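Query structure, 338 tokens:
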């Protein structure tokens, strides 16, 4: 079968891999669309510390069940359209004992710690399958990337009295914008790309700030009547936005961190203490986040053209990754069609 392989940093190509066999508790999936994630870009650039090479990337999945093992429940029948929860969980670590399986100490995400879904076929335990006959294949491929932002907003306990500032309007930030708006919050979207900010506005952001061309602090103060936001979500993974999150958050506020900055960051502890801040991490997503995103896509039916920058064939995927690496700010989502 054809697969896309990142052989080493800077090298991505189409390779032939043997067809996988499935066990009694597993399903064989025929892939239809797989999205390139920011973690895949980091792998290509050699900036993902959790990856070893060679690696097949990909964990944003739209597929159809091809075959099911003998112990797979009957409702997972061949021909069903599905997506996948791409994380493992050990069931024994402290996070798993608290039923926070998304934060499992020993998690292995498809395409990161283990080979992913950028191939014609994939074998997966049936427990990780999420079915939805009501969504299109393109929508199914958008579910997982949106869940990460949904999860961050739920972690923060956002309600309709909150003003939520979100740094980064990529796919994860987009999920956070949508979820915060669904919860009735006032949303401030911050990015350096006007095209992404325009999409953020169409998806529910109340205010838009281009931090390259506008005075971030002055705009935030104006938009919040001098109080600052009650919640800040860092979804850019940039040292500058991490520092700005602490500076811009209002007193007694909550900061939720999703992005990996890739380097150590020095903060003013004075602001942490004076503002009595809550600093939260947010990792991956839960099954309930998948359900929430599916409900959103089913009911709201957002324009897929807003969320998908480009759809490419398997053969075009290496060039698409190269072009993305050269202009990362211009891409929201690339889907590979199998």
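Result returned for the query:
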């Amino acid at each position: 079968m054809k697969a896309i392989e990142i052989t080493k940093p800077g090298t991505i190509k189409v390779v032939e891999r043997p067809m996988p066999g499935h066990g009694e508790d597993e399903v064989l999936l025929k892939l239809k669309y797989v999205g390139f994630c920011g973690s895949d870009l980091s792998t290509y650039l050699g900036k993902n510390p959790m990856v070893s090479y060679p690696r097949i990337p990909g964990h944003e999945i739209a597929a159809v069940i091809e075959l099911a093992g003998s112990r797979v429940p009957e409702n997972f029948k061949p021909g069903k359209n599905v997506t996948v929860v791409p994380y493992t969980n050990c069931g024994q670590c402290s996070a798993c004992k608290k039923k926070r399986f998304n934060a499992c100490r020993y998690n292995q995400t498809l395409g990161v710690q283990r080979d992913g879904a950028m191939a014609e076929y994939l074998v997966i335990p049936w427990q990780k399958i999420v079915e939805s006959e009501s969504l299109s294949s393109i929508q199914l491929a958008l579910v997982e990337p949106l869940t990460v932002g949904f999860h961050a907003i739920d972690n923060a306990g956002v309600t309709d009295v909150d003003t939520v500032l979100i740094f980064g309007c990529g796919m994860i930030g987009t999920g956070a914008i949508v979820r915060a708006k669904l919860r009735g919050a006032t949303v401030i979207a911050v990015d350096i790309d006007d095209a992404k900010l325009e999409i953020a506005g169409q998806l529910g952001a109340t205010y838009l700030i281009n931090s390259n061309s506008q005075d971030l602090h002055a705009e935030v103060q104006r938009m919040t009547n001098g109080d600052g936001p009650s919640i800040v979500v860092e979804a850019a993974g940039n040292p500058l936005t991490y520092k700005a999150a602490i500076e811009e958050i209002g007193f007694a506020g909550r900061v939720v961190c999703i992005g990996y900055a890739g380097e150590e960051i020095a903060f003013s502890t004075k602001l942490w203490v004076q503002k009595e801040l809550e600093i939260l991490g947010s990792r991956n997503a839960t099954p309930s986040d998948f359900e929430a995103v599916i409900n959103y896509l089913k009911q709201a039916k957002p324009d897929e053209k807003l969320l998908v920058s480009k759809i490419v064939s398997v053969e075009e995927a290496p060039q698409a990754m190269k072009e993305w690496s050269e202009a990362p700010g211009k891409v929201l989502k690339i889907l590979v069609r199998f």
